[in-house]
Each structure stands twice: as C-alpha cells, then as structure tokens.
Design a protein that fits this description.
Blueprint lengths: L1 H21 L1 E4 L1 H11 L1 H19 L7 E11 L2 H11 L9 H5 L4 E15 L1 H68 L5 H35 L7 E4 L20 H22 L4 E12 L7 E11 L7 H67 L5 H35 L3
Parallel strand pairs: 1-4
Antiparallel strand pairs: 2-3, 3-5, 5-6
Helix pairs in contact: 1-7, 2-6, 3-6, 6-7, 6-8, 6-10, 8-9, 9-10
Amino acid sequence: MKTKRFIWGFTLLLFNVSSLISQEILISQKEVLKKVSEQNISLKISEQDYKKAKADFNHTKSVFLPSITVSHTGFSTTNPLMVFGSKLNQEILTSADFNPTLLNNPKKTQNFTTKIEIQQPLINLDGFYQRKAAKFKMLATSLKSERKSEYLSFEVKKTYMQLQLAYKGVGVFEKALETAKSNKQIAENNFKHGYLQQIDILNVNVRITEVKSQLQAAMSNVKNISNYLSFMMNDNSNVFYKPKDSLTLTTTIIGTNNISESRSDIKAMRLVYDAYKTMNKADKMSFLPRLNAFGSYELHDNNLFRGNANGYLIGAQLTWNLFDGFKRFGKTQKSKAAFDKAKLEYKQYVSKSNLELNRTKRQLLEAKDKLHLKSLEVQQSKESLRIRRNRFKEGLEKTSDLLIAETKYAQKQLEYYQTIFEHNLAQAYLEFLTKE
C-alpha cells in the first residue's frame, strides 16, 4: 500500500511538472515593461487623477471668462404694479392706462420676456491666486503619475528578478532530486552487500520525499510570481512565465550624490507646498474688494416667443465684504496651517529619501562583500559532498553525513542565488532612488 501511494504521489508530481512546462511562456523584462506601461490599471487610474486635476484648473478660467445666460419667462397677472410695468416694457403704454380706475383695477395682462445676461469678472485677486494654486496641483499630479510609472518599472524589475530566482530554486531542487535518487541506488547496493541497515534506506527515502516537497514549493512560487506579473500587465490569462535570461550579477554602480530635488516625486511635493502657499495668499486676497461688469439685453411682448420691445442694461459693480462672521479669518488660518504642514512634509520627505538612499548603498556594499563568501561556501560544500559521496560508494561514510552534505550543498546554492538577487535588487532600487 505504501509503495502504491509513493508511486501515485510521484506520478502526480511529474504531472504537475509537465503541466507547468506545457504552459510556460518565455518573456523578457523589456516585454513586461512594455505591457505594464500600456495596460497597467494603476497607471490608468493615475491618468484619470491628472484629468481630474486638469479639469479643476480649467474650472478656474471663470476668473477671466464671462458668464452668459439666456432665459425666456412668461406670466399672466392682474397685479397693478406688474401690469403697468409689463406694458411699459412692451412699449404699449397709452394715456388711457393712467386712468386711476384702470391703474387700481387693471385687466389681466400677459408678458413674455427673453433675457440675455452677461457677467464679466474684472478684478478678483483671490480668484487669480486660486487659479495659480490649481495649476500647481495639476503639475504635481502629473509628476506623481510619472513617479508612479517609474516605481512600477522598478516593481517589474524586482518581480522579474524574483521569477529568475524562483527558477534557480527549481533548478537546484531538480538537481538535488537527481542526486538523491542516485544516492538511493548506491544505498540499496550497499544494503545488499551488508554495508548499510534498513534505517539508512529509510533516511534516503525521507530525503527524496523532502526534496520533492521543496521542488513542489519552488514550482508553486513560480506560479505565484507569474500571477503577479499577469496582474501588473492586466492580463487575466492563467499562464506561467519563464524569464528569457537567467539570474546573473549586474554591474555595481554606487554614486556619492544625495537625492536630487529634480526627481519627479520631490518636485511634486514642492509643487504641493507651493499650491498650499498660493491658496493661503488667495484667502488673504479675499479681504480685498472685487470689481465685476454686468449687462443684459431684454425682449418683451405679450405673445410667446416674440419681442417687439427691447432694451439693455450695462454697468459695473465694486463689492467689498467687510465682515462675514469670522469665516474668512478661520479659512485663512486653516490654509496657513495646511501650508506650514506641507512645508514640513516636504522637508521630511527629502530627508527620508536621503536616509533611504544611504541605507540602500550600504545594502549594496554588504551584498557585494557577501557574494564572495557565498561563492566560497558553494564551492566548499560541493567539494565536501563529492568526497563524502565517493566515500559512501565505498561504504566508508555514514548515510546521515551524506544526507547532511546534500542538504548543505543545496542550501548554499540557494543562499548564493539569493545574495545575487539581493545585490541586483539593491542596485535597481538605487537607480530608482537617484533617478532625475
């Protein structure tokens, strides 16, 4: 029964491996970057944020452009004052209409008015500054979208390197499985000659089962990373990607400069700070008077959609709201606090970015030094495994020591590839932080 279960489990594992291979799609980092830039939903959301900020900026054009409205009103009345005024507007007033009896008890009168009104802002200083603040906000949103695109590029590089590392892990465990099976044959041969006991055979089988489990976990990791790549590319097809190029060490470049203030996200923070500063000025300007021009043209008649009588009105109005119950004072204080907060956040963001840069530089140097040690460990563990395996063939080595050497060699290979990944990731993140 145990033998059947073992065969069934092994068959299932082979099926999973063949299923993975049959659905593999080779893809390069450039292809992923291209698809992400074209299809990523997060970038599309950023585009909508920019359009929204642009619409807010266009809304402020009202500080320059006129407001024009057209209306058509009709009514019927016996109100003395409305009757007299309607006839006067319709230019049909006669001397008989001044009869006191008719003035006090007029007949029903209809009036239809077509009116065109124009209001033109002339001097609204607070509106000018509000428009300037809206422009800062629009530019900041554009730069934030640019930085998000740069971050997604870094995220693609990171995920692609994770996929490379995952396939390295699959390769390590596949070789480890071959080695374990080969050692099992040697162990069975030694068992026949009386060099080993049954417990040694069981330990070898446990090692094979352990490697199979690790291989399956490594393949599951490949699937998970592939799914995340599909998510970033907005691709719903359930496929598994394989990198066209293997995980290799990238060139180490460590600069000495600090974070550039021309970086898109830092420029965006600066523009947000400028926007709050300008909004505070706008609130202060609301204490000053406003000058607006206005005009209207009217058509009157006692019949619908006719206008035998007409007239116009044109003028200008200077308004000064001297006190509105402390509303403007409170609004100005609030915008001043928001401006001070944005100023502090800008300084904090730059300082934190420099802190992150220094940390990444140290990580890159540590990974570079660590690589040499890990490379030596791989060579040493490989040689140790070779010697113990040769001794095991001759019946001179314990099974437990051989299994430990096998495990250690696989572990050191994984640690070496992990160090390469950490080095390349730190290099990519350093480039992301220092991008201008």
